[in-house]
Amino acid sequence: MVAAASVFQPRPRVCSGARRSPPIRRPDATHFSIQATSNPYLKELQRHLTTRLVRASDAIRSFPSTFLEAFVGSTFTFHHQPLRPTEGNFAPVDEIGGRIKITEIEGKIPADFPDGAYIRNGSNPLFGALHTVSSIFGQTEDIWVEGEGLLHALYFTRSSNGTGTWSLSYSNRYVQSDSFTVETARGRPCFLSVTKGNPLAMLAAGILNMLRFGKMIRNMSNTSVFVHAGRVFAAAENDMPNEIDLQSLDTIGSWSIGGDWHMPFTAHPKVVPGSGELVISGINIVKPYLTIGVVSEDGMRLRQKVDLKLDRCTFCHEIGITEMYNIIMDMPLTLDRRRILRAAPLMDYGKESYARIGVMPRNGDAESVVWFHVEPFCILHLINCFEEGDEVVVRGFRVPASIVMGPTLERNEESGDQDMNEEYFSRLYEWRLNLKSKDTTGRWLTGTDVALEFPVINENYVGLHHRYAYTQVVDVQASLAGGCGTVNFQQTLQCSLRPKFGGFAKLHLDQEMKESGGDVINVEYHHLERNQFCSGATFVAKANALHEDDGWIISFVHDEGTNLSQAHIIDARRFESAAVAKITLPQRVPYGFHGAFVSKTT
To answer: What local confidence, expressed as pLDDT, does residue 416 receive?
Structure first.
């Protein structure tokens, strides 16, 4: 576990059977080395600022932690970031304190829908809002994905009396990460924003966070929910996952896999078809930049741990698998702390840099990876990967490089208006990597008329050939409706927009269209009503299914006109038809990230 300042150090939470993590030493600020630049003025400025900060760090580290906290408290001021009028459902909500029974259901829950729980993770900032932090060093701010993780769970229980009736209930709960524990104990925000802002302020915030808490950025655990060996976990890639009690949503503790994994952990691990092993990965801002692991089927042992020996920290949000291989996406969207004093963000996209996709035997080492160089790309989410003859097929959504920090708009020089850059549209792309000839081919599978993201498939087909995938559909106009917060305005405008999704798409991956100029594959759409937006869509497979798409899409949906939140259940085989059931929830559910359905039989 990460050590906080000594007077506020929380008692570590450790999952049953795991070894307690060794204490983390407060690092030396000299580790924040700054890359030299050819500009003499900037080089001298970097040397001067680095020397001053190192001296200050050395002095501060000799202070008792109470003096360090007093310095931060007197020097840094936290301000709420305001939401635009159209962003009301991004505002946080409170915990409700237990389950609430649901009685309002439009339509009918299918008789063969499984007992279980639909659970979704998402950003829910503590203390009322995301924050901007001001100090003598300048200003920094949280970005839109940085709120603490709040789990929303909808429970389905079929009656045992044979009548086919259902009992439904809803609950929510914060993931009790170590950062959450520290800040709630103090009753105020403590971690200084470091991701975006003035370069000197970002550097000072990073150093002070490291000195006080042993980490640059707080652990949020706000991105996804996954299941392995019958256990449920909440995850985000800047920390180890936290195990969750599904019935109470209590946090049991962080999962270090028997004490063998003490580093960040992907939000999208993959269960290997056949063996049931779990393939994981972790990125780090210092070496090793990317590590691959294989966890035993029972979740008790880390069978494999490999440093891929990359020369940069690529933002590898998701790892892919096939039956035999691990698939690594090494793209030029990277994290580099040396950028801060070059007036660049911690995360940035190097459009002139290289990109490659690695095919690694399941239990291979760094030298066993076969790398395929491709044109530079940015990708967050893969649909799936599988083997087909001598080829490995990789499908995922190529997204704009600015997707995390905020989308980029083009300025219309004649009108002065802000137009959405075509690059903003996340589109499905397919790579085919030939292991025999080492050739690579790639093509777009969807057009630029619709932006798609947050894909899901029938999880029984992960790593295998499949015919269908399901995504959320970006409502571009609704996302832009509130205006754009300017970061810098030259030829482009970077925005702090939060995307909204106005419906769902079903991708028929094996049905190619004969027409040109649009989608290459057949796509069906399920549109929500006006001012309704979704998040956390997941596929729920039907028991004893005869077809891959036998099942349902379930998602939270919020109506901005009525301010009511529901869960919609959509028949995947009658995708364009109305939802078979709409379940009204007892309170507003903010837009969030990834969901999962945990069957009672899991």
So the answer is: 47
Q: What is the mean pLDDT of the chain?
A: 86
The full length of the chain comes to 602
Cα–Cα distance, 450 to 472 (Å, whole number): 10
Asked if omega into 269 is within 30° of 0 (cis), the reply is no
Backbone angles phi and psi of 177, in degrees to 5: -70, 170
Owner of token pair 């291979």? 364
For the purposes of burial, counting CB atoms within 10 Å of the CB of 154, is it exposed (0-12), middle (13-18) or buried (19 or more)?
A: buried
List, in order, residues 6 or more apart from 197 with CB less than 8 Å away: 133, 138, 139, 140, 141, 205
CA–CA separation, 8 and 6 (whole Å)? 5
Cis peptide before 288 (omega within 30 of 0): yes
Q: Decide: pTM greater than 0.90.
A: no
- The answer to whether residues 341 and 34 touch, using CB atoms and an 8 Å cutoff, is yes
**What is each CA distance from 260 to 265, 304, 468, in whole angstroms?**
12, 10, 37
d(CA 233, CA 221): 9
CA 327 to chain centre: 18
What is the Cα–Cα distance from 218 to 253, expressed in whole angstroms?
16
H or E segment and range at residue 571: strand 564-571
Number of Cβ atoms within 10 Å of the Cβ of 514: 5
User: pLDDT grade, residue 53 (50/70/90)?
Assistant: low
Q: What's the first-to-final CA gap in the chain, in angstroms? A: 29
Distance of CA 367 to the CA centre of its chain: 29
Q: State the alpha helices, DSSP H only, in 445-522.
A: 476-480
Q: Count the Cβ atoms, other than its own, within 10 Å of residue 522.
A: 13
Sign of the four-CA dihedral 406, 410, 416, 417: negative
Assign residue 85 a region: left if phi > 0, alpha if psi is -120 to 50, beta otherwise?
Answer: alpha
Closest CA to 224 of 300, 308, 291, 319: 319
pLDDT of residue 269: 98
Tens digits of residue pLDDT in 227-260:
999 999 999 998 899 999 999 999 999 999 999 9
